[in-house]
Specification:
The protein starts with a strand and ends with a strand. Strand 1 and strand 2 form a beta hairpin. The chain contains no helices and ten strands. It is mainly beta and about 110 residues long. The strands form two sheets. It has a five-stranded antiparallel β-sheet, with no helix packed on it.
């Protein structure tokens, strides 16, 4: 997930993704405010929710007890993994994907 680095407090970093500010694990590298960074998200931590990043569902795949929901926001793909059939969505649906604090980690910069 391409983001802009905002700063760090202990083991947590703040990053900007579009108009949204996320709190992710900082990792070991040092960055400067304004740096472009990549953030890896844990798909099983992402949730379809009332509040979150508005996305359009581009694919729904169910295999081996896991539902993979692929959605797009501003040209970026987010993938949420759900166990079982607890969420009813289909391609083209508009959903909000919630990225909870510490659901991702900084993994590189430019």
């Amino acid at each position: 997930l391409p983001c802009t680095y905002l700063g760090r407090t202990g083991d947590a970093a703040s990053v900007k993704f579009g108009e949204y500010t996320l709190t992710v694990r900082a990792g070991k590298r040092e960055y400067h405010p304004g740096d472009t960074v990549m953030t890896a998200l844990r798909g099983e931590k992402l949730a379809i929710a009332e509040n979150g990043i508005p996305c359009t569902v581009t694919d729904v795949n169910f295999a081996g007890g896991i539902m993979r929901i692929t959605a797009e926001y501003a040209g970026t793909t987010l993938t949420a993994l759900r166990y079982g059939l607890d969420t009813s969505v289909k391609m083209g649906d508009r959903v909000n994907i919630l990225i909870p604090d510490l659901a991702g980690i900084l993994c590189s910069g430019d």
